[in-house]
Specification:
heterodimer, A: alpha/beta, Rossmann fold, 2 domains, four-stranded antiparallel beta sheet, 7 helices, globular, B: mainly alpha, 9 helices, 0% strand
């Protein structure tokens, strides 16, 4: 479904992505891990079409996103849902308006249908009754849930999570991961999740892709544990200073 | 040494040229949304409320005092040459042709332009603009074009208000304080004021409205990272807009008057 080939990107003179290749099959959920500043969010933004690479290709069902026209890209983006690290909710709008915005602009649903859909979606993310609140009035966990609600309200096929549990306490973070997993299964979503919740993240993904020095190392995931002999991944997952990589 | 200097100058020039090109494309792409519906009229009204309505008090206050000081200075100058009767035209023409559009533009830039840059910068840094793009919505259509249209409308109306209040301020000083007859003040204004003066002032305020919103939106849209980036963008927006308005004022004055 998503195929990344030899992606390269330099930012402010430093090589962030170097010959990155990755494949995500339909229905597959991939955890993108790596050290802070390793380029995980940059890679995610490339796949979402928010950034253009210096070289390489990103294919989605045979369409090259890197050379796609604006209209094609707009159509493709309608298949996406994206949960940003900070939620990226429009803070001048209420929660209802945040969720209604894409529906009003991109669908032909009536006001009543929009209202029903929002109520149903908020109930699914356990946030019923917050419609009239503003994002600043919500807790961190509630903001992430609202961001998830906004990401799925347009019924996407592919979903991206950019560190969705950052800043949450461990219990809420785990409950969020379970919520994502429930949605993934229910809606049969394909997706990539950038996360530092190791090893908890392994229980909801089928594959782990680690970004290290601008390159990708992948490993399969089964029954909540990672299945690899790669020493770089093992060192990172185990969180040890001693190993093939010298962390400063 | 010389080679290094040439390289540096070349790099600097290319960088500036690239940014100039990007800002031009930004303007053209934003204005193109005006001819490709839907135009977001509701958002335009909201922006007019912010840029225009909320600046009215400031414009009235500064307009009144500008007119008053013009009358005070003008009266003493005109008295030396025995032409006090021309105080009305002096105040009105100075305001309508020059001071009204320029001062209103500079004041609105300080009040609303800086806030627009800060708002868009924060939206960029909080990934709200990215979120909009991922919804398949063009941020230029939803964010920038309504601001530009509202800026042009608001600036024109605010300039009229500035002019009218300023002329009234001049009347208070010239007639009520210095004893000029009311008929002389307004009669001479109607005698010397021409339609070209008014349309010239309108052209200026229209272009200043576009310049202000263009630069302020552009600086916010392509802001640097974090709080430092946003504050830098806001300062640059106000300074660049103010300088550009004064330069543009010279060129437009030399063409239309």
């Amino acid at each position: 479904m998503i195929r990344i080939e030899n992606l390269e990107k330099k930012l402010a003179g430093s090589e962030v992505l170097r010959n990155v290749s990755l494949q995500v099959e339909k229905g597959e959920f991939v955890a993108l891990i790596g050290g802070s500043g390793s380029g995980k969010s940059v890679l995610l933004k490339h796949i979402a079409g928010l950034m253009q690479p210096d070289a390489g290709h990103i294919w989605l069902d045979g369409v090259d996103l890197c050379s796609a026209r604006k209209k094609t890209l707009e159509k493709i983006r309608r298949r996406y849902g994206f949960v940003f690290q900070g939620g990226a909710l429009f803070d001048s709008m209420t929660i209802y308006e945040n969720l209604a915005f894409p529906l009003e602009e991109k669908t032909r649903l009536s006001e009543v249908e929009i209202k029903e859909k929002i109520a149903k979606t908020l109930e699914q993310v356990e946030l019923a009754g917050v419609e009239s609140k503003y994002p600043a009035q919500l807790s961190g966990g509630m903001v992430k849930r609202t961001a998830l609600a906004r990401a799925i309200i347009m019924d996407p096929e592919i979903i991206f999570f950019d560190e969705p549990t950052t800043g949450l306490d461990p219990i809420i973070a785990d409950s969020m991961l379970k919520l994502f997993d429930a949605f993934r299964k229910r809606l049969n979503l394909t997706g990539i999740i950038v996360s530092h919740r190791i090893p908890q993240i392994f229980s909801i993904v089928q594959k782990v892709a680690m970004l290290h020095k601008g390159m990708i190392i992948t490993a399969p995931c089964e029954n909540g544990s990672i299945n690899t002999e790669n020493e770089i991944i093992r060192q990172f997952v185990e969180g040890t200073i001693e190993g093939p990589v010298q962390y400063e | 040494m010389l080679v290094k200097l040439v390289l540096w100058l070349g790099g600097f020039g290319t960088h500036r040229l690239r940014r100039l090109g990007r800002s031009g494309i930004f303007l053209v792409e934003s204005l193109a949304c005006l001819v490709t519906p839907p135009v977001k009229w509701g958002r335009i009204v909201k922006r007019v409320q912010f840029i225009g309505w909320q600046s009215t008090g400031l414009i009235c206050l500064t307009g009144a005092f500008t007119g008053m000081v013009l009358a005070l200075q003008g009266y003493s100058t005109l008295k030396r040459v025995g032409s006090e009767a021309l105080l009305g035209p002096l105040v009105a023409l100075s305001l309508i042709r020059e001071l009204g559009p320029v001062l209103a533009a500079l004041l609105v830039t300080g009040r609303a332009g800086s806030a627009l840059t800060a708002e868009i910068s924060i939206m960029r840094n909080n990934e709200q603009i990215d979120a909009m793009e991922l919804m398949g919505l063009n941020p230029l259509r939803y964010l920038v074009l309504p601001t530009m249209v509202a800026g042009v409308i608001s600036m024109t109306i605010l300039t009229w208000i500035f002019d009218v209040v300023g002329i009234f301020g001049g009347y208070l000083i010239g007639v009520k304080l210095l004893g000029l007859p009311t008929g002389t003040y307004f009669g001479e204004i109607s005698r010397y004021l021409e339609m070209d003066d008014i349309t010239g002032g309108i052209y200026k305020s229209l272009s200043f409205g576009l310049i202000m919103t263009w630069i302020c939106c552009y600086k916010g849209y392509f802001t640097g990272l974090g709080a430092e980036g946003a504050s830098k963008a806001t300062t640059q927006a106000v300074v660049t807009t103010s300088v550009f308005i004064l330069i543009w004022d010279f060129f437009i004055t030399s063409v239309i008057f």
